[in-house]
Amino acid sequence: MQPSLLTKTKMTPAPFASPILITRPTLPPIERFEAHLKEVWFNRVLTNQGSKHRQLENNLTTILGTRNVRLFNNGTLALILGLKALGIRGEVITTPFTFPATPHSLVWAGATPVFCDIDPMSLCIDPNRIEALITPRTEAILGVHVYGIPCDVEAIQAIANKYSLKVIYDAAHAFLTEIDDIPIASFGDMTMFSFHATKLFHTIEGGCLAFNNTELGEILNLLKNFGIKDGEAVVMPGLNAKMNEIQCAMGIEMLKEAGVERERRKPLRKKYVELLSEIEGIDCIVLPDGVSDSLQYMAIRVDENKFGLSRDQLQEGLNNFNVFPRRYFFPLCTDYECYKEAVNDGVPAARRAANQLLCLPFYGEIEIEAIARIAEMIAYLGKNKGDHFL
Ligand code: T4K
């Protein structure tokens, strides 16, 4: 029988020789990308909705299981312009446990974020707390499928229907996520995906909106291209948020890689879960039944009382072993100076999550032995209360 992780923790584990970061972007074979580059060099169409743009948009429409997709040069601009296209300017109920891009997009779109606490299990906006925050100025709910874990889409839609609100999802982490085999983009009025380099599927920088209301497509085409219609007329104050042909080429090739990368991550997550479940005070974030997720992050919750170290002490201890997990998402959005006024600390579950969650290194190329070593380091730090390092 293999010795248990905990019996092996008397010896100080050796630090990694080179840093182990939270992620390492996936790339397609360079020859395939070069072939696209040659085509672009030959055609001299570099941006403004060229053939690669059309191809990627079509491919994504099929993969995301939606009627329409529009591409953008990053997820943040996609979200801002999506909100603009939906005409949302009032209050929007959203989560504080997210990347700053979520509430910032609301402000840039001219709306007001109203922060709602999260469900402690799913870490997504808690539908049971939304209704209490609805006022005559409320226009929408902006949920975030944090770490690719879906929001309670049915409960959110029921509230939206009752109060005639729009529903927008920030699915920056949720590429390929499905609920009971239904693609995540099927829910709500609009879904944003980020295609940043650190994501399962990426275009280096980029993002898209997926939506079923085809009328929004024309408005979005204008909003991301200065508001220019038919080459000359300017019909609204749009931005420049177009995805260029090189980004689209990366996307076309990355679509062939994302599924493979996700498969590679499955045994890695399994290994983490198997080893970390032996450690008291460390809980792996699990998915609800029926959900298949993006395998974007490997998140753990650190219970200081049981583990013996706080999340921050664990992070510091791992850093000393040359391992660099990330505190996604700390600080809480409601603690940013710009949003402090927007909440009266009614978000205890989100605050706990921001203080306890840690995302461990997780990407297809990380070796299973490295995961075993990281788990051993965590066990060692907990058992020795980090004495050696802290
Ligand atoms: N909504 C949500 C919920 C989001 O999480 C995000 C973005 C957005 C909206 C906005 O979408 P975009 O506008 O970004 O499309 C990273 C990403 O930059 C950001 O896209 C992502 N969320 C966020 C959760 O993570 P940082 O500040 O942590 O990135 P950075 O540069 O520290 O990179 C993380 C690690 O990855 C580093 O340890 C190094 C490694 N790395 C990174 C890059 C960029 C590489 O090895 N190579 C690279 O090229 O935000």
Automatic annotation (TrEMBL):
**What Gene3D superfamilies does the entry give?**
Type I PLP-dependent aspartate aminotransferase-like (Major domain)
> Which residues are recorded with the post-translational modification N6-(pyridoxal phosphate)lysine?
199
Sorted alphabetically, which keywords does the UniProt record give? Aminotransferase, Pyridoxal phosphate, Transferase
What the entry lists under InterPro entries is as follows: DegT/StrS_aminotransferase (IPR000653), PyrdxlP-dep_Trfase (IPR015424), PyrdxlP-dep_Trfase_major (IPR015421)
- Known Pfam families for this protein? DegT_DnrJ_EryC1
Report which superkingdom the organism of origin falls in. Bacteria
**Keyword Transferase attached:** yes
Q: Where is the active site?
A: 199 (proton acceptor)
Output the GO biological process annotations, alphabetical, semicolon-separated.
polysaccharide biosynthetic process
Enumerate the GO terms in the molecular function aspect: pyridoxal phosphate binding; transaminase activity
Similarity annotation: Belongs to the DegT/DnrJ/EryC1 family.
Q: What is this protein called?
A: Aminotransferase
Q: Which organism is it from?
A: Nitrosospira lacus
